[in-house]
Specification:
Largest sheet: 11 strands, mixed
Strand order of the largest sheet: 1-2-11-10-9-8-7-6-3-4-5
CATH topology of the largest domain: TIM Barrel
Strand content: 15-25%
Number of domains: 2
CATH superfamily of the largest domain: Aldolase class I
Length: about 425
Amino acid sequence: MREATTNDASDSPATASDRAPDNAFTDKRTWVASMIPIDELHRLPMASSHRGALSEACVQCAEGRKMVLFVTGLCRFRCFYCPVSPTRNQKDVVYANERRVLADSDVVEEARAIGAAGTGITGGDPLGVVDRVEHYVRLLKKEFGSSHHIHLYTHEPNEQKLERLAAAGLDEFRLHIPHYLWGPLSGAGGAYRSVLEAAPAWGVRRGVEVPVLPEKEAELRRLLLALEAIGVDFVNLNELEFSETNDRLLRERGYRTDPRNGWGVRGSRAVAERIVREMRLSVPVHYCSSRFKDGVQLRQRLLRRAERTQPAFAERTGDGTVVFGVVETTGTSDLPRWASSVARRVRIGPDDYRLDVVRRRVDLAPEPLRRAAIRLPWPAFEVEVYPTADALEVERAPLNDSAREKMGVGGGGT
């Protein structure tokens, strides 16, 4: 299953088919179901495409308005292509986007930090901790109202658990059908068929979401025909991609990266595009590329979070990262007094900086720090970070000799 990440896998330039107008995700006409004929092919940025209307969850995700609630890393299916990071894979931990969840308030605060219109519940397999999932569904509906759209992604075809979550307020679920069951969903695949056929009675939308294994095109086509006969609400096809967790297993099976498509598996995009282009089904089919997840979904979410959480003195980039200045203490115990001294030397007011007690530093606007850095006896840097709860640092540049010395690089001027 694909979790949201903070690394950009799009290390190859976009092709002409990857490009789309800047307003591709603000023009609501793109998303209105009644205006999207099922047989019309729609191309999205980063080589994604779809026929028929996108699900509401996909719309919110593309606009950066969907919080990712990772409820557990535990999963009994252990798919060889699982991309979940080592810090979460098979660990019973909870994250709201990049924020480690230790209390309900962490979930609510993170949703507010991005102005979330909905939540996607993921893992691991969420149905393995169904009590926890039900709690979060009820919490989010109570806090943000019935319009807060909640979807869930699961491998487990369990009617009892899914019906229970639908009663709690779940709006949509997506079944991940194991690749060895792709086909007409008879025999061992019957449990998945049963869930998909039963779901409309629970008042919940149901779809299927699978990665595109390039050598399984024939089986995938047969699965799509079976899903059309069932009448599912949508099918999502994800580009198979490399990650730190699955790299060895994918390469052992002969998979290689696609040189035109970042960390995507060679052949996965071609098969997905061919299926969306050629199969004229009566159910919506959406192909989501790995680069779309990082270059559009993640970027939009970062931009929204930066707008709501960045300090006034910071500068926001077009990619959603935040740039500001940092001055680090060299050992003082009276941090507030030291911070005031930094502010006087840089010639800024008390509202133009913040004291980070945990990191033992002062954060401030980059421009005045650039001018004053050479006069400071403390290490001064310009840093670029993600506007996430963990404030993952992308880059830092030393602004004076003290900073260069700390980084172990040559000194001499600024």
